[in-house]
What does this fold into?
Amino acid sequence: MTFTTTIVSQRLEPKASLAGATRPELAAALGAIGVPDRELRMRVAQLWHWIYFRGMTDFDAMANVGKGLRRALADAYSLVRPDVVAEQVSRDGTRKWLLRLAPVGAQAEGAEIECVYIPESDRGTLCVSSQVGCTLTCAFCHTGTQKLVRNLNASEIIGQILVARERIGDFPGLPPPADGQVPTDGSRYISNIVFMGMGEPLYNYDNVRDALSVMADGEGLSLSRRRITVSTAGVVPRLPDLGRETGAMLAISLHAVRDELRDRLVPLNRKYPIRELLDACRAYPGASNARRITFEYVMLKDVNDSPAEARELVRLLTGIPAKINLIPFNPWPGTSFECSSDERIGRFSQIVFDAGYASPVRTPRGRDILAACGQLKSETEKLRARAVLAVAAD
Ligand code: SAH
It folds into this structure.
């Protein structure tokens, strides 16, 4: 009997990327191509340096790794990062990238996320996403209107930093961007990370924790844990873990001082009401006057911006080492909220300040490119929405 074999279709699986891998993941990847256990530590340290300190995207450039191992690595793996689909630069120097992730499973095309770089004279902040979209549906946030949602893995979170560092020239030997702003005081171009992009980081806790361990590793990206802030709408049961395991700074999206209003603005409040949330903050491991918890408060005209609410806010925060960050509402197409007037924000801020709290008003950055807080929603989602509207209008 003879057999004939016909290959009907052959889909080449893309090689797994090691860009964004944790130390244990790198060790496993090396082990899988036959690197003996006794060499693993040394080999991981070598790869770590090239990937995270030098920003290399090519195994062949890893001069202290033998040729044979370099070839074996390149045969089995890649150092591919998320694709930059679009880059927008605001008048104020803020940059927003639309990134496409590698496809998962049977997906033909990878999902998309946004990531924003905010340069100031004395720091450079990268605002990263922790999920594609978000399940929280906060009433004033654009991301919550996006349908598609999934968690990012640690490597996709780290991928955002690698891409941003590359684009602004923040790896050794790269030139700074010709058209963009970067800090002028000699600090790293990316000195701070905030988890304030798309998604609720504490709904993706394990990956956020692993990503933090990569970011803060002193042999690689070397970001200080005090300059990494995780912002949450208030996933109370995760707060003790976050404080204990990561040492990250905490920001709470409070936005209202009464449950009845917060239930509407931040629906997660129905599960974890204000009192429970603030009790968890009081007990947050590592909070102190030197490491204060930030309370974010979006200023919504005639909704939550009265002087009485400012006084109640101060009362609620008694006993918590806190700072308050007032965020002027950033509008987006289709929202019915409006931003409070400057005068109203000033009054609110003064009351908070008089009570002894720092109360900076967050300057909106990158509003012209829809890069400001709560404005992120992937471009294809928007294009699709527009296409649907166009059909509906026919
Ligand atoms: N899910 C997390 C992190 C993402 S949002 C959280 O809720 O904290 C980062 C901050 O931007 C949050 O405080 C969020 O409430 C705020 N925000 C969302 N939409 C906004 C908008 N349109 N204008 C101003 N701030 C907004």
User: Anything to note?
Assistant: The domain at 83-375 is CATH 3.20.20.70 (TIM Barrel). Residues 138, 140-141, 196, 200, 231-233, 253, 296, 298, 327, 329-330, 373-374 surround S-adenosyl-L-homocysteine (CB under 6 Å). The longest helix spans residues 37-53. The two ends are 62 Å apart (CA to CA).
